[in-house]
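User: Design a sequence. Structure:
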């Protein structure tokens, strides 16, 4: 009986052991599974995060590619990137057009074989010796400021080239330089005359009444010429800067009559017949500028006319524009001077212009006033027969 009880307890202990072992193993399995699930979840999170980063990196790359394409198509300045073998890694449309680069060969050939401009290639060779080069070049008739810089690319070196078109700036500078030289010359002549006669008066060398009147009138004439010149220069500058934007409805006939009143004495002295327009037109414009335009046109037609000649002024309706015509039967303009007639200080007959008080700025002012009103101007002239200037102004100017 005792042995049976002992065996029962042993069996009970064994059963309890296996039960506990089963519980322990189940617990360990659950723990391992949870750990695996946790690791799997962490791995999945890492994968998701990596996918998100890859997606953002891909989007950033696409954005950069779009930006590069925009630069290539729409950037006004020309840009080129060369590798260490002088092959083109990138060139925008402006550069390809300016340098006439063959798109089919630019990835496989050196830029030295693609471009024939010697000055450009010389500057590029110089950039290999100096890390940075800045040159003013003339390419295909345009003035170009070239910036060439050696830069480090990945595991080698390359060159970044920026080409900026400065043609307009060069032209403006040339005009400014020419204008300054002309102004200096034009101012010097009357000032020299005034100074010379002033010294004669100051030294007491001119005392006779008739000589005092003679030389005094010369000083007065040169002073007036100087004043006219300064006023024209100031007026031209004002029109160029568009400082006056007083646009209103204007009667062309009224401003023409105003101009004739200003020039009445000169017209009577020259015995010129004025033929007025048969009809009037109303346009939107700057009254002061348009009055000055008519003064300069009529003054020019009277000044370069013959005694007893005529000046015919007419207006006409041309769709959305008004035509203003001033025609004379004066001395006319040589054919080789017609293209230059609107240049500042340009005179066809310098002696006649100075004799009659011309500054050489009248028609230049006219051209600027026409441009101000977004109009056009043309001239038809024959030497010895006369001149007709036609101006077309829009009826409405904003």
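Assistant: Done.
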């Amino acid at each position: 009986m005792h042995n049976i009880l002992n065996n029962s307890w042993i069996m009970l202990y064994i059963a309890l052991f296996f039960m506990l072992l089963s519980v322990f193993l189940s617990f360990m399995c659950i723990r391992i599974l949870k750990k695996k699930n946790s690791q799997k979840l962490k791995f999945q999170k890492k994968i998701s995060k990596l996918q998100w980063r890859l997606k953002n990196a891909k989007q950033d790359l696409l954005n950069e590619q779009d930006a590069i394409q925009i630069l290539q198509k729409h950037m006004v300045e020309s840009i080129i990137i060369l590798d260490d073998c002088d092959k083109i890694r990138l060139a925008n449309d402006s550069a390809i057009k300016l340098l006439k680069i063959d798109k089919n060969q630019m990835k496989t050939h050196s830029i030295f074989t693609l471009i024939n401009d010697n000055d450009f290639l010389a500057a590029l060779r110089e950039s290999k010796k100096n890390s940075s080069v800045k040159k003013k070049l003339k390419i295909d008739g345009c003035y170009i400021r070239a910036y060439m810089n050696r830069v480090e690319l990945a595991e080698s070196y390359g060159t970044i080239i920026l080409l900026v078109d400065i043609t307009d700036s060069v032209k403006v500078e040339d005009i400014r330089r020419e204008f300054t030289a002309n102004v200096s010359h034009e101012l010097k002549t009357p000032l020299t005359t005034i100074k010379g006669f002033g010294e004669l008066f100051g030294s007491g060398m001119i005392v006779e009444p008739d000589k005092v009147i003679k030389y005094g009138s010369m000083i007065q004439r040169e002073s007036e010429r100087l004043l006219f010149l300064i006023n024209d220069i100031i007026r031209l500058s004002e029109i160029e800067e568009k400082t006056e934007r007083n646009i209103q409805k204007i009667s062309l006939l009224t401003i023409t009559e105003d101009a004739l009143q200003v020039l009445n004495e000169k017209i009577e002295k020259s015995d010129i017949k004025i033929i007025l327009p048969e009809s009037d037109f109303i346009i939107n414009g700057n009254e002061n500028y348009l009055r000055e335009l008519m003064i300069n046109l009529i003054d020019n037609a009277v000044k370069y006319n013959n005694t007893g000649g005529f000046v015919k002024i007419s207006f006409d309706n041309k769709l959305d524009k008004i035509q203003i015509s001033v025609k004379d039967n004066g001395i006319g303009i040589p054919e080789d001077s017609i293209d230059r007639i609107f240049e500042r200080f340009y005179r066809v007959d310098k002696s006649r212009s100075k004799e009659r008080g011309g500054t050489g700025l009248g028609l230049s002012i006219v051209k600027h006033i026409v441009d101000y009103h977004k109009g056009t101007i043309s001239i038809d002239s024959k030497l010895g027969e006369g001149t007709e200037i036609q101006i077309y102004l829009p009826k409405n100017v904003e």
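The first strand starts at residue 78 and ends at 82. The first helix runs from residue 2 to 74.
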